[in-house]
Amino acid sequence: MRFVLRRLGFFVVTLWAAVTLNFLIPRLMPGNAAIAMMARYKGHVNPQALHAIQIAFGVNNHQSLVSAYFAYLGNIARGHFGISLTFFPDTVAHQVLQALPWTLALVGVTTVMAFVLGTLIGLVSGWRRGSVVDGALPPLFVITSAFPYFWLALLSIWLFSIKLGWFPESGGYEVTTTVGWNWTFITDAVNHSILPALTIIVTAIGGWILTMRNNMITVLTEDYVRMARAKGLKPWRIMWTYAGRNAILPNLVGFAMSLGFVVGGAILVEFVFNYPGVGWMFLQSVENQDYALMQALFLMITVTVLLAILAADVATAILDPRTRERG
Amino acid sequence: MSLPSVADSVEPVGATVGSGPPEEATKRSAGADLWRAIARNRKALVGLCILLFFVVLAAIPGQIAPDDPRAKIYPRGLGPSVHHLFGTTAYGEDVFSQLVYGTRQSILIAFAVGGLATLIAVLVGVSAGYLGGTTDGVLSLITDVILVIPIFPLIIVIAAYERNAGFLTLVVVLGVLGWSYGARQLRSQTLSLRRRDFLEAARVRGERRSYVIVREILPTMTSLILASFLGAALYAVLFAAGLQFIGLGNPNSQSWGTMLYWAENNEALGAGMPYWAIMPGVCVALLGAAFALLNYAFDEISSPALRLRKLENTGVDTEREAKAAVPARPPDPKNILEVRNLSVAYASEHGPVVAVDDVSFDLGRSEFLGVVGESACGKSTLVYAVARLLGAPLAGEITRGQVLFKGRDMVTLADRELRHIRWRDYSVVMQSAMNALNPVLTVAAQMRDACEAHSTMTRREIEARSKEVLRLVSIDPVHLYSYPHQLSGGMRQRAMIAMALLFTPELIIMDEPTSALDVVGQRSLMVQIKELQERLGFAVIFVTHDMSLVSHFSDRLLVMYAAQVAELGRTRQLFDRPLHPYTQGLLEAFPSIHGAKERLLGIPGSPPDLLHPPSGCRFAPRCPHVMDRCRAEPQRLLEVDGELVRCLLHEQAAASVPAKEGVA
């Protein structure tokens, strides 16, 4: 129980830190970004929206920093992220909710797939230490895990879309199809997601394979694995219940810790493919200096990462009885 | 993850705890060893070569690139040719020259960010680990928060306000956000070092904290600090390229990321000019791969378990030859176990190490044999070879000899057949139950899988049997469904013995099962083992370094020294009249429980390096009775009054060389 409370406390602190960064960064930057933004949008949007921005970014108002900060916290807590300038007069919250399913389907599924597949391959590779496969895999994946995501995305577009014409070049679906739960749309969306999905999986999987393999090799030297052999257990039983189950624990922690990096790469993949998800919208908002939207998306990404970490925590607690009792 | 020293890697017997070299030596030779290890590691060499290549490009781009990277003097969008290796850009610049000049920024960013991030990581990680308490709490919290906040989006947010981020901004932002992973690793390493002897010694000497940290802690973490640097450098190269690619860098800077940005802007792929995008990407990927390879190599270097060593042509007989070499003699049915001329070798970086050298002994049914000797004498290796449990971390191999268990040779038994007799016919109790019990399974589950592997018992029968064996070792059966960490040390050890009794095997091999307990606990556990043995009639091989402890319970003792049998005989006789000077030394090293007060002498010196054992008697360098002949020739085992001893002092008294012993 204390463990759960401590983790929840940690999440609250992290969220608070993210919100505070959001509040502070525009105010700390030299040259007021909000003023530049307002100059840009003056005449394009109505005065009401500009007034909202003035409040959100502390332009031309006489509020002290502290009271502005608390007003900001209050707005965030109530889910008031302001109005998007790019998609005026739509609210930021509404825009974010539109992009979210695309990212969850693409980045969420591929990240989990890369983790599960990579962990399985690493487990077998570590168990079959010194086999041909084990000899070839680690150096190969050390190299692929250092590939820039966006570069691999560019390469795959060039090869599979432009040269071979197997997959569509960009977007999440053909503009001609109607978005909804119909067969044409779904197959179309899947078709559009294959290349970005492969890009994410290929770059992300290497890390999981390597760490799991190394964990496995370390765990195989443990006394309890030798004890399992002494007990005459079948090899697959030793591999799963003794070696694998213990080796996966550090990998779950690693999953939680490197998620922030993985998401960063996925944003670039969405950008390269013009995929209509959170990452693409995030970069659009940067491009258009739509700071309210950008900040909301940044919070959104942080919350998603935290939820994924929470899931990894739960999995760790289920697999490791020691965590459940540790204070 | 501590740095291996040469002494560590030669260390032949991994099973013996606390036999490492003195901490001082480990620490001082760290730097030199690291270089040697890098030179031997292929991944490290490849990574280093790529890195050097780029460093050279970055240092003297003018000498290598044919053109000024900004000179828009050529036709636009040329394809690759002799004059333009990778063609020209959409503005008529030479792509190759741009690549060469772009190297400098990536290299500088990598090293600057790597350095800055590592500096912060060391400061935060080491302070948190070393100071502990509230400082640790606050620093760890900050580290963890920065670790889980998605850094790349955050950097984008910052770059969105600070348009056209220049070099300095990039370095500061990437460095300030990229240290957390390294700090976490360094903190846990410092925590584990804190309790080590050499730090304790420095504290007792009254050294200042800063001195202890700089002189004592940091040198031991060289490889971890390097790993932290490489990780940060890798991430800096990738993130900087990513930022510039999406247009958040300075579009006029000479860098690979900016080249990618212009390639994307000019629709390189659609315009049929993939070189614009591919080549800078290849450079980023190559430089990234160099850092990743080096990082991975350091990981391998710093945890020896990851390095695979094989016993290559050792000059020692292979299994099959050995089988033919041992005369086939039918085993005596009175014996449950006959070990004949058993040799075990380990692969080390400096050649094979023979950790068990031509050892033979018999074990009668229901007999209690004690195997004693100092750390690293090969006693644990011997019994794990007998149990066919060699393998990581004891990556030894049986190179010669037979192990006849109930008449069958265990050495040549196939894994499948071996699995059937394991635990049913012989079981094993290990030194530390904390390590030997699977931490994520309950005691019940660990007993159940043994039962399921060897019997057709129902769940209910298994539960009943599990409770029964727990009662045998005086544990309340309510603890059956506990996890190992919920039991006390003594209970865990008993639970492991209970597990070994599940099928009432005929032989139980015990590797220092009491050494983790205090004196009182040791004694009561020994009494219990002896009672169980008398009641259930199993034979015991009991490995220990504590001769006085085992002597009250064993029927016979086997004294090992430097991989060989020094002396083998009945416990009483060996105690009353030790023949080998080493046995005499061992006896003097332990206080006698009921003897008169005597001065404890111990044995001066330390056991020989098994990689290069002395050519004569292996004990000669430490022996008080050493003669010239001892150093000249290897000694055979002699039979004196029905006992075996490897010592020239008893040559006169020796009856004859026992036939079953080969010449060592």
Care to describe what's here?
The complex is a heterodimer of chains A (327) and B (664). The relative contact order of chain A is 0.14. The longest helix of chain A is centred in the last third of the chain and has 39 residues, at 235-273. Chain A contains 13 helices and no strands. Chain A folds into 2 domains: 2-78, no CATH class; 94-319, MetI-like (MetI-like fold, Orthogonal Bundle). Chain A is globular and about 80 Å long. Chain A has 327 residues and is mainly α. With 664 residues, chain B is an alpha/beta fold. Among the domains of chain B are: 42-306, Orthogonal Bundle (MetI-like fold), CATH 1.10.3720.10; 562-650, no CATH class. Chain B is built from 27 helices and 12 strands. An 8-stranded mixed β-sheet of chain B has the order 6-7-8-3-9-10-12-11. Chain B is elongated, with a radius of gyration of 32 Å. Chains A and B meet through helix 1, helix 6, helix 7, helix 8 and helix 9 of A and helix 7, helix 8, helix 13, helix 15 and helix 18 of B.
CATH topology label of the domain at 42-306 in chain B: MetI-like fold
Counting DSSP E segments of at least 2 residues, the number of strands of chain A comes to 0
Termini separation of chain B comes to: 39 Å
* Chain-averaged pLDDT of chain B: 81
Q: Choose one word for the global shape of chain B.
A: elongated
Q: Architecture of the largest domain in chain A, CATH level 2? A: Orthogonal Bundle
User: Helix share of residues of chain A?
Assistant: over 70%
Name the CATH homologous superfamily of the domain at 42-306 in chain B: MetI-like
- The overall pLDDT average of chain A reads 81
Tally of discrete structural domains of chain A: 2
